[in-house]
Amino acid sequence: MYLTVALTLLLLSTAIAQQFFDASIQRFVQSTTVITLLLAVWGVKSEHVLFTKAAIFPSAIILTSMIGNYTNAFGIEFTHLILMLFFFVFTAFQTLKQVIFSGKIDGNKILGSICLYLLLGLIWALLYTLAQLYFGNAFSGLGENEAWYILFPDFIYFSFVTLTTLGFGDISPTLPLTRFLVYFQAISGQFYLAIIIASLVGARMSTMTQEDDRSNH
Fold this sequence. Notes:
This protein has 217 residues and is mostly helical.
């Protein structure tokens, strides 16, 4: 629940900052991503060693974000985005293991499936941001030489438009690699919906079967 709320507020605050405030406020809002990452770590109630080590990622992200705020170094900000990407991928993987084809369906599992969908959108938004920063002309419909915290809100929008296969066309990929990322995200979004529905229905049917078996005995 906390992670779902945090991700939703992150997306909303990003849009509000872009709509009503200048670049400095937008950068501040992007830095609150760290809070989302910390919630992801603290929200996992497991003693598995990987979860313990996962706390290293938010610490590194906080450090690179602070350095980037004061130096505006391209390498530091690039490292910051890569660390965010790895952590989102890690969090999505752990959420996937808890949601898909496992256990009884409950509110937490449904919220987990929502979190996973939001994380998929954010993962691709980071990939698009990194591609635009590295190549400079990876997408059309965007300003040139924009900072990552200016690009990121636009790519969040573009990522979810692609994930849901809406495809408005105001932003479009211009390089073979970014075109691959775009159509692969659209495919992943469709397969995710099919798989998650099959998982939830299958888990529900399994629970009903077990309950019938117990009642018969």
